[in-house]
């Protein structure tokens, strides 16, 4: 007679294998400790300091709550009632009675496993945590209106970080999936997780650099950034890629893509099926892309203006020369869009009308409200960044990546902690997360200028931005513009992007895409995902009124943009290639600059 599945007991652990794994782990741990002990003898560049503004913000919170006992009492009553409801439901389930009414709230991926619902004890742990986390955040919210807005955002953000960190899903003893895996594997998952942790510490040279994907599964130029093209120009700041045509005829007006230099350009050239770069080429456009250098300390004095002078303006000259076309379409994304907008305003002041039409993706014009980004870029934080980069010469890539990850901490930090370190799983291949881990440095002078002028001073709207004595006034931009924002963007909030429609003097088309900063942009039509919103009658409207009157369209915004771009592409001419245009070919795409990896 065989055992039923319920009667089976887990296999005994392989003691020899566990001992072998433990020996490997011990050796790796000892080597890592020795290496870091040697490094500790050398003073580090920049020292960690307590964020005094955060400390003051929590002190202000405590003071406001002390003067509002009613709000505190209400929050405590809600906590008590919530805990009583949880206990009542738990007691009923223990007695064999399922409570009615169901549990409210949107699905939480941290508790997606069936054990969180079906096992009474774990359901009790989960529900108690959710009630307690609501209590903490509601308590913060009770004093939010009485705090300085900057302090309120900081307290709210840091409180959420704390609440996310203490989730029962993040601990061995309170995560049923981890306990089950530990029993089934005889504890090997915990040894594998420790090895993963040590490996990530080693990769980060003492800083935890969480592996999000199998980086060995990707190679730049092979299965990401693989659209065929040639590098036709190079200077100290960028390489210029000219892509091979895929159609017999192309539009006469070429296009230049100005990507962000906070990350690498190939976010829009991942797999062929979701590559915006390939899609643009397939629509019959001659496309050039700037691939920015990954700077080191030799470029510490490079300014934001240098990215315009030696970057966009030089690239425009090269595109004009190679294609023998005086008019060029421009595409800017994120900080590349901010640089493109700055360049357009500078060109308008100089009477330079080479830009035929411009597309701006997730580009903020009004940076008064930048959402959670404000937590990282207030005056005190900028002074700290300036101090950190002054001797090093650049902002390290992982420092910027950590900031963005904290804005989506459950998806980009804690989910990997659970899978990599508690479950002992190896990260799976994912092209977007590979790109996310392929970070870039930022020149010291440029990053301080950028944060100060655009984030702190809101220079586009408030004024005061000059380049070589030329005032930058976005209201002078008359170039036809297509502005695309995404509804759930946590880096460039869509209402801040919308301001371009109201600020630019020329004809503008604003479209709101679904999803977030990256997924909403890299959203090919073939996937038919998300949606986009258009309001054809939008003159003079504020963002909320615009959205209230907008029509929702299924699927990708690319198709709407493709029609707009076609109208600004000019007549069709024989397809151009680097060879047919007589351009100097330095190497094949994606070039050399994009392959340089930062820490």
Description:
The protein has 599 residues and is α/β, with parallel strands linked by helices. The protein is 45% helix and 12% strand. It contains 20 helices and 17 strands. Strands 15-14-13-12-7-6-4-5-2-1-17 form an eleven-stranded mixed beta sheet, sandwiched between helices. Strands 3-16 form a two-stranded antiparallel ribbon. Residues 1-5 and 36-50 have low confidence and may be disordered.
SSE layout and pairing:
Elements: H1 15-40, H2 52-66, H3 69-94, H4 115-118, H5 120-142, H6 149-165, H7 176-185, H8 188-203, E1 229-234, E2 238-243, E3 249-251, E4 255-258, H9 276-282, E5 287-292, H10 304-323, E6 328-333, H11 335-350, E7 355-361, H12 379-392, E8 394-395, H13 397-406, H14 409-422, H15 431-437, E9 442-443, H16 444-456, H17 459-462, E10 466-467, E11 470-471, E12 481-486, H18 494-503, E13 508-513, E14 531-534, H19 543-548, E15 551-554, H20 558-567, E16 572-574, E17 587-588
Parallel strand pairs: 4-5, 4-6, 6-7, 7-12, 12-13
Antiparallel strand pairs: 1-2, 1-17, 2-5, 3-16, 8-9, 10-11, 13-14, 14-15
Helix pairs in contact: 1-8, 2-6, 3-5, 5-6, 8-14, 10-11, 12-16
Short description:
This protein is an alpha/beta fold. The protein has 20 helices and 17 strands.
